[in-house]
Amino acid sequence: MPWICLTCGNHDYHEGDQPPAVCAICADDRQWVPAGGQRWSTLDRLKTDGYHSHVREVEPGLIGVGAEPVIGIGQRGLLLHTNEGNILWDPSPYLDDAAIQAVQRAGGLRAISASHPHFYGAIVAWSQAFDAQILLPQADIHWLSHPTSTEPQVTTWEGTLPLSDGVTLVQCGGHFPGSSVLHWAAGAEGRGVLLTGDTINISPGEDRVAFLYSAPNRLPLPEQGVHRVVEAVRPYPFDRLYGHWWEPAIRHDAQKVLQDSTDHYLTFMRGTAPSWIADAN
């Protein structure tokens, strides 16, 4: 049974009766360790404490699987239906019988991937429950924690990885070297969808996006990284963006929102923000 970090939600397969002294994910510059120290739990303890899975349709062909109450960063997974088997993206830190049964009713699980290491969550537990393949960028594979007793089914990739007709993993870099998105050409009634995690961050107003090296530590992504993200997704048409939480999302014109937001973001990175801001300083 893995230890679950209550700050980031990642599973750590540390051997022993006591949890690890520190979560490697939280100790990294992009995350944070609580001032009072690291806090841990297990799936059994969380169930006893009243945690449960929450499953609902996001749009036809796409189901969200999350946890209530929220654990760690709080991402909900997205189960994408394809004719070649279902794909789970950014898996929740929590799974129980209800979540497993919901995925079984939706047709099971062929493979699992994640936008970046903060959202690996219960990826190994999901893989074991369904005998599903784990697909992770080579650049970030060293962040995956797994039990030494059983080797998970892991395939590494880089650049792009087609999963089925019109479904593609795209490595963007930025937040992490392997930070990725998943493009679903048939989503949004055929206009295209990007599942972005926080490789591309969606604003609460659902009208713009931004790029962050670390959201909790208030560190922006430098211009070179922004260009890499934008260029990586340029070949893929999309009208809608889903991030890592149930809300927010960019519901329409997401490709234009991305371009406009990129231009706006870069004016601040270059020190060429509107004159009223310069005057105020």
Helix percent reads 10-25%
What structural class do helix, strand and pairing data support? alpha+beta
Average pLDDT score = 95
What characteristic shape results from the CA principal axes? globular
Biggest sheet strand order reads 4-5-6-7-8-9-10
Question: Mind summarizing the main beta sheet?
Answer: 7 strands, mixed
Distance between the termini: 54 Å
Give a verbal description of the structure.
- The chain is of the alpha+beta class and 281 residues long.
- Helix content is 23%, strand content 27%.
- The strands form five sheets. The protein has a seven-stranded mixed β-sheet, covered by helices on one side. A six-stranded mixed β-sheet has the order 11-12-13-14-19-20, covered by helices on one side.
- The longest helix has 16 residues, at 254-269.
- The chain is globular, with a radius of gyration of 19 Å.
- The mean pLDDT is 95.
